[in-house]
Amino acid sequence: MPRKVALDWLSRFLWGAVLLTLPVTSFRYFPFLGKSTLVRPLAFYPLVLLIFVLGIRWLRREVRLALPGVFLPLAGFLLIALLMTAVGSLFAPLELRGQDYWGRALRAWVTVFIGITFFLAATWMNRDEEDVRCSLKWLYIGLFLSVLWGGVQLLAFKTNLLEKETVTLWQRAFSMRELVRTNRVSGFAFEPSWLAGQIATMYLPWLFAAVLSGYRISRHKWMEPVLALLAAFLLVMTYSRGGILIAVAAAGLTFILVGRKTMRRIWGWFTSAFQPPARSRNVILRLGVVLLIVMLVVGVFGFLAEREYFNNLFEIPEGGWQAYVIHNFAGARVAYAWGAMRAFQLHPWTGVGLGASGFYIYRNLPDWALTSVPEIARHLSPTTHLYPNAKNLYVRILAETGLFGFALFVVFLFSILGNIQAVLRSRGSFARFVGVAGLFSWLALALYIATQDSFAISNLWINLGILAGVFGVLATSSRSHASRGNG
User: Fold this and answer.
1) Which of 23, 450, 395 is nearest to 250 (CA)?
2) Which residues contact 21 (CB under 8 A, 6 or more apart)?
3) What pLDDT, in 10s, does the model give residues 400-419?
4) Rounded to whole angstroms, how far apart are CA atoms 441 and 419?
5) Looking at the 3D structure of the chain, how many domains does it have?
6) Per the domain annotation, does 338 fall within a domain?
């Protein structure tokens, strides 16, 4: 086998390994990381090897590692973050539980490096339609394995076929955490909400787009709809309020914005049974489908409503919004974001430096959190070694890089949205497929990063990288269609 062909095969194999191992978010065997570091993507191992192989191919001029245009505002954000990290050291925050400023800054930059590496690898490995189809095959296999492992966990939770302790030992063989005691499915992820975030931001966008656009990556037309149903089932089994609401909101908004043709077809199919000559069989079929959908929605809602965790969303306790967030077990999350925003208010233009917002959180917690949130009381105990974080990427970026860094990050996100809109105006089933998946991904991620604050979480970058990589060829195709139309 010629060396060029071998390296090309190896790079594709390693990229497939990256996508296959994405579900494992907290791999036990990471060197030089303390127990408090929970984001440990297994996919980073094949990712490092992939970058090494791509570097060799670039030196041999076998590949052209061109950066997409959307990387420009992201690069500007990184430069601002680097500058503000240097400025933040001048504020000299006191050590917190054995951790100093530069130690936290180094850890923060390591997470940024991991995230950007995922983004660049996804960009470079998805330059055309064939690349995207290959990537989605590996992505779907990873999702299917998550469904299988989630099914094993459900067997341990709901039946006597498997002992929960046995499955916990299997889980601990690769994960930092055992099975969740509340019998919520976590899959290969650290916790159920992380699995729900993966499904909502990384897998459902492509499956939803395949169903909506009719585009398929294989001859098996049933594969994407079945995978979508399995993913939705797994999402419900996580009992993650945030993940479920994000998926529903992103799917609903995407359907409203780009699904009008599909809605017209569905409405036409439904009303055709009632037009003369109407046949009772067709009418019964349409009404049966509607009844089935209503029963499914009501059933899922009733199933989730059996848990107090969900019922609390619809109960308004006395005491204002503070009482509501505490009642919904979100008091600590809101309090940490509150403390980080206070750091931003102290240094709005420069921020306090990447990774340093935690030094300012405890001293700026709101009074209601100190007296009413047990989790805050535990974390304030002198016996704990936890370092607080903002729990919200928007707030974290504001607090740590100031207004300039936040503005550039928002420009990065909206530059991707602009490209998605351009793709949606392009012709062809593949362009529509990518556009719908891109819009779903963008909406889901815009909501998701309001609930987490780590740059190292892979599902923040994978779909954005795939989209950024394929934007170039789709834009070229759109321009060629336009020029032929004008001619």
Assistant:
1) 450
2) 41, 42, 43, 45, 46, 142
3) 999 999 999 999 999 999 99
4) 13
5) 1
6) no
